[in-house]
Each structure stands twice: as C-alpha cells, then as structure tokens.
Amino acid sequence: MSTTSLKVTEGETDFIVPAAEKPCKTWYKVIGDLHGPTSRRPLVALHGGPGVNHGYLLILSDLTKAHSIPLIVYDQIGNGNSTHLPEKMGDISFWTEQLFLDELANLLTHLGVKEYDILGHSWGGMFGSRHAATQPAGLKHLVLASTPASMGLWVKSQNALRAKLPQDVQDILDEHEKNGTTESEAYQAAVAVFYSRHLCTINPMPEPVAEGFGWIKKDPTVYLTMNGPTEFYITGPLKEWTMIQDAHKITVPTLLVNGRHDQAQDPVVAPFFHEIPHVKWANFAESSHMVHFEERKRYMEVVGNFLVDNKMEL
Which of 199, 269, 252 is nearest to 56 (CA)? Predict the structure, then answer.
C-alpha cells in the first residue's frame, strides 16, 4: 500500500545472537514521526507466521493517517529483509520464543522508544502477549489480533473447521499427512481451500498477504522448525505453547480482535478474555484471519478508538 504522504524511515539494527555464530540484523520501517511534536505513542506491529514478513501489516498506517500514531513494523529474524539462518533448520534450541522477545527489546532500545503500544497478529500476538506478561514499563496498550491463547486450543479449532471442508478435500489432507507428503501439490491445493475460508476470504488474496506466505516458501526455516507443515498439522515446539496460566499477568488495557470465520475461533481467544484484568473483545462477522483487510474500515475505527481513547465503537 502507498505511504507516500507520510514520513517513512527504513533501517537495520544489529541483533547480537551468540548462538547464530554470525552477525545478525533486524530490518525495520517506521511510518510517521516517532519524535514529532504532534505524534502519539508509536504502535509496534508484530507479524505472524512465524516465517512471514511485515508487509501485510503496513495497512495499519491507516492509523497513522487518522490519529498521528507512528507505526513501527519489522521483519523478525529469519524472515523478510532481516538476517536469514537456513543453517538452523530444525534447531529447536535456537528458534525459541525468547529469541523473538529479545529481538523486540533490542529494536525498542535501538529506536529509543520509551512508551509504546503493541499490535500482535496471530504468532505476533503470541509472543506479544508473553512480552506484555513481563509487565514492561513502557507498554501502555496491547492489541491481540486473531491470537490463540494456546496452541492446543488452536489445533482443536483447526480440526473442527477442517471437518467442515468438502469430503474430498479432507481425504487429500488425511492421505498426504499419513504418507508424509505434505509438500505435494495436491496437499497444498487442499490447504489452499482451507485458507480461502479461514485465512483470508478476499479473492484474489491481497498481494501483501500472498507475499508474506511467499516468504515461507523462499525460506521455510522458521516456520517448519517452530510450527510444522501447516496451521493444523503442527509438529514443532509451538505445539505445546500456551499463555493461559500467565494471561492474568497482562495488566495493560488489552483489545482482542477476531473474525467469525477466523482460524482463531472464539474458544481459542476466550481464555485471554477471562484472564486479562482490563480487556475488551471485538468480533467481526464478515472476516476470517485477516480482519484488517476484510473489514478494514471498521477494524481501523475499533483499534484506533481503543489506542487513542481506550474506547471501542462497536
């Protein structure tokens, strides 16, 4: 999307990761003026995957235009324009949640950001919620967009949605998972049917979303190591991930967002609503996992009102 009417700054920051055994950098982009006299607290957007890139969150610059909220996006290590480490494929001791928490803290320090809000989408919301649970002094608001409270609930939801697919599509998924041929064209085509219903209902898929998934194909290291072949066939360490026991430690005002047809169905999000002390929840009836594209106008109104006034206009 175009951000030509806004100040845009791109850069890289060194990210020291001793276990990487080589220099690492985090690439970032700032839309708006971080230190302008009329600027508000910046919004740090954490992309999903793990393994896509920042591009599909640039749409959040709508909030910059409407409310003078500077937007910070970046490519997490292993993804997009940041340092890639294909030699770490399968290394679950390297690709940990803590790695991404450290990277976020490093970026905030580099940019000199003292106070900030976070919007984490999907996987970005997962480690964003963990960051919030540490109660960092500078965090003021949290938006968890289509974020699972646990991967156990996520997998259960994917299986329930999958059971509603046409039987021939289900059969293809079952057969190729049983045979270990999840890289086949037939399997990927069947997954695409699922995604068209529950990842993004816009046809054709918006280019930034498609580009993000293209990065997983270019370098699947992070996704395959942490997650596994697909959203509902999880073989990596994220299979055991949960925030349910720690969600009550999130003390900042929090907004939950999901879509009616979302992969993050209501039961997947609900523990956040029950455990976080100061929380609101907005569900979007015409959306799946990409609510910010599917119901863009209302999404920006709801999120903008929350960040600016801690209100939601439903």
Answer: 199
Q: Could you give the residue ranges of the DSSP H alpha helices within the chain? A: 61-67, 97-111, 123-133, 151-162, 167-179, 185-198, 207-218, 221-226, 266-275, 291-294, 296-309
pTM value? 0.95
Alpha helix ranges (H) inside 219-295: 221-226, 266-275, 291-294
For domain 8-309, give its CATH number from 2.60.40.10, 3.40.50.1820, 3.90.470.20, 1.10.3720.10.
3.40.50.1820
**Residues with active-site annotation:** 122, 262, 289
pLDDT tens track for 179-199? 988 889 999 899 999 999 999
Percent helix, strand, coil in the chain, to 5, is: 45, 15, 40
Domain ranges of the chain: 8-309
| Residue with the two structure tokens 């803590």 | 98
Q: Say if CB 79 and CB 224 are below 8 A apart.
A: no
